[in-house]
Amino acid sequence: MARSHDRDYFYKLMSANTAKAVLKCSSLRWREPRQFNDPFDHLVSFVFPYTKQAFTEALFRAVERLVYGEEPKFVEKTLLAKMTLVLRGIRGRAPREEILATLASGLAELEKQIEQYRANMNSLITVDLNKSRVLCVTEQNDNVVMWSHYADSHKGVCLRLQCIPEVDNTLLAARKVEYITEFPLFPTLDEHVRYYTGEAPIDFAKLLYGIPFMKHQDWSYEREWRVHVPHPVDAAGNGYDDWKENPRVFGAMYLGCRIEPADAVELVGMAKLKYPHMEIYQAKSSAEKFALEFEKVT
To answer: Is residue 283 one of the residues assigned to a domain?
Structure first.
C-alpha cells in the first residue's frame, strides 16, 4: 500500500455493538456514499466558469492559430487535432475565409454538445462514484459533537487505528478531506480548449476521484480523512463491506463517558483476549471545562 501521509494513527468512533463486531472479526466497515449523512457527499458537481459560447469562441481562435500559425505540437490526437491537420494541409489551396467558415460550422455543432458533455461528466459523479466503498476516520478522539453523532451519544467507543507500513494496512492510503464553500470549478477556459485541440491533457480521473474528498465547510469540525475504493469487485449488495485488518492496527480503545457498564465489561474482555497490546481508556466529562478527559484503564 503506497503511503500518502506521515500520520501514525487515526480514530474511528462507533456504537458499542459495532465495536463488538469490529473486535470480534478485526474488520472495519466500508460504506457506499449513499449511506452517509451529508446529502452532498460524493454528489458535488463541477461548475464551468464560462459559457458554452465563450468556450466555442476561444476554441475557434485556438484552431485558427493552429491552422495558420507555427507547426502545432499535439500531445493527443483528438478529433479536433486531426481536423486542424487537415485544414493546415489545404490552407494554401483555399481562401482563408472559406476555411474559417468551415471551421465555424463544425464548432457550431460542437457547441450543441457542450451541455450534454457537462451532463455526462457530472453523471459520472452521481452514478459512478456512488458505487464506491469508503472508510472514514478522524484526526481527533475528543470532539464532543463527534462522540454524540457517531458513538451513540457517548455510549459507544472510539478506536485508535495505527498506520503500520510493515503490515501494509489500508490506512496508509488515507487522504485528508478538503472543506470548501463552493462547488469546484472545472479547469480554466484555456486548459479546456487546449485539451480539445490536443495540445495538453486533462487528467479526468484525478478530477473525478478528487470529489470523494470534498465536503462543505460546515463539516470541518470532523477533521476527516478517507480511504476510497472505486468499484470494488467483491462489494456486497447491501451498501457496505466489512474488510479485515491486521489485529496490530487496533492500538487503543476509548470507552464513552456514558457507556453501559455491561458493554464496557464485554468490550474490555474482548480486547484483553484478542488484543493484548491494546491500550484501554475511560472517557469522562471534565469538571472544569467543556471537554472530555481520558483515564487509562489498562
So the answer is: yes
Residues 205 and 259: beta-carbon distance below 8 Å: no
- pLDDT band for 140, please (50, 70, 90 cuts): very high
Assigned C-alpha cell, 56: 466555442
Count of C-beta atoms within a 10 Å radius of residue 12: 23
- Domain assignment of residue 252, given as a range: 9-35+133-181+217-296
Q: For 60-75, write each residue's pLDDT tens digit.
A: 999 999 999 988 999 9
Residues 245 and 23 sit within 8 Å (Cβ to Cβ): no
Domain count, the chain: 1
Please report whether residue 285 resides in a domain.
yes
**How far from each other are the two terminal CA atoms of the chain, in whole angstroms?**
32
Q: Supply φ then ψ for residue 205, to 5 degrees.
A: -65, -40
What does the alpha-carbon distance between residue 177 and residue 156 come to, in Å, rounded to a whole number?
Answer: 24
Using one digit for the tens of pLDDT, what is the confidence trace for 42-56?
Answer: 888 888 888 888 988
25 domain residue, yes or no: yes
pTM, to two decimals: 0.87
